[in-house]
Amino acid sequence: MIRLPAASTSVPDSSTGPTPGPAPVLVATGLEKRFGSTQALRGIDFALGPGEIVAVMGPSGSGKSTLLHCLAGILAPDAGAVSFEGARIDRLGENDRSRLRRTAFGFVFQFGQLVAELSALENVALPLLLNGLGRRDAQDAAAAWFPRLGLDGMERRRPGEMSGGQAQRVAVARALVAAPRIVFADEPTGSLDSLAGEQVMELLTTAASEQGTSVVLVTHEPRVAAFAEREVVVRDGRLSGLAS
User: CA dist 68 to 20, 76, 82, 125, Å?
Assistant: First the structure.
């Protein structure tokens, strides 16, 4: 069991946090991150409510993906704090952060990053297997997603035997199958045409809402951000507040 360090009691500026209500599931304060001479994040505050879907927008190179990676525990910030459900995660070691990403977080990336050697069913079941669920139970749980994906009969196909949109829907199911508290989606439609992208976003947002999963969605496309409940903009490593 992961023992998380105590969280700071400071609260981000209300202009970048969710509207008043339940306590945020994820809070970041004063995040800074540098890569060599490049300052990617410059003191960002951010908060995510339970079940909330937030789009993080901004041009290429603005720092939005770096922000997502720090929020998800993929990168450790150089300064600032990240708290998940009231406990600090930025102070965890890599093994504990990896375990947290397996048990509480789900991920969807631009190119899906499915395991090419595994079938669609095995890819969706993979998070459950890594968390210790038996193979039969994991595959039964994974199989239940395929009618929702509109992919009946494709359970045994490998990623290379599916279209980009079909493979990305499998990636969404893999992210959600373990009922994570948060899904982090980094340009999830960036490699898809507009129709396939809309299908993927409809699946992601509907399924996340049904199971109460929060979503942090990084995108530069307004049509994708429109699926979110709230939008924020990253420019030059700073969070500029609500998008119009």
Answer: 23, 11, 11, 24
Helices of type H across 104-238: 120-130, 135-143, 146-149, 164-176, 194-210, 222-225
CB atoms within 10 A of CB 110: 18
Token output for 196:
């396939």
pLDDT of residue 4: 41
Q: Is the model's pLDDT at 60 over the cut of 90?
A: no
Mean pLDDT of the chain: 88
- Bridge partners (DSSP) listed for residue 231: 55
Two tokens, residue 202:
């409809």
pTM, two decimals, is 0.87
Query: DSSP 3-state assignment of 88?
Result: strand
The encoded tokens of residue 241 equal 């507040």
pLDDT at 6: 41
46, 232 contact by CB (below 8 A): yes
